[in-house]
Amino acid sequence: MKDIAQRYLVSVKTVERILDSFFEEPRLKPNYLPKHLLIDEFKGTKDCQGAMCFILSDADTGKIVDSLEDRRSFKLIAYFMRFTYHARKNVSHVVMDMNAGYDSVTMVVFPNARISIDRFHVIQQLNRAFNKQRIKTMNHLKKSDPQAMKK
Fold this sequence. Notes:
Blueprint lengths: L1 H7 L3 H11 L13 E7 L10 E6 L5 E5 L4 H8 L4 H5 L3 E4 L3 H10 L4 E4 L1 H25 L2 H5 L1
Parallel strand pairs: 1-4, 4-5
Antiparallel strand pairs: 1-2, 2-3
Helix pairs in contact: 3-5
C-alpha cells in the first residue's frame, strides 16, 4: 500500500480506503449449507485466536464457504448451530482428515451426514505404517544374522 500511495501521490490511508471499498464481506446464509462439505485446518496468521484455523468448502463446486480463526470443537459447534436445522440436516457427506474432534462435531451438528476420510490422509497413514514396519524389520535383521540381512 505504501508503494501504491507513493506512485499516485496519495496517503496510505487513502489507498487502504479505496481497496476496502472493493472488499465485500461474505454474508452468512443461515438457510444454506452445501450437500457435500470438505473441512480441514490450516496454519493461519499469528493474530488468529487458535493455533490452527478452519476452512469449510463445497465439494461439488470447490468454492470456499467460510474460514474460521479457531478449529476447537466448541467454536465449531457454535458456528454450525447458527445454521438452521433444515440446512444442517441437508448435509449428506462430510470429507475430513482423521481429526477425532471433527468426527464428534459432525455427529452433533449434521444428523444425516456420512463421514469420509480424504485420500491424502489415508495414503499418509499407510506410508507411515509401512515405514514403521520396514524400520522394525531392518532393526530386527541387524541384530540377528548378518547373512540373513544380506539376503
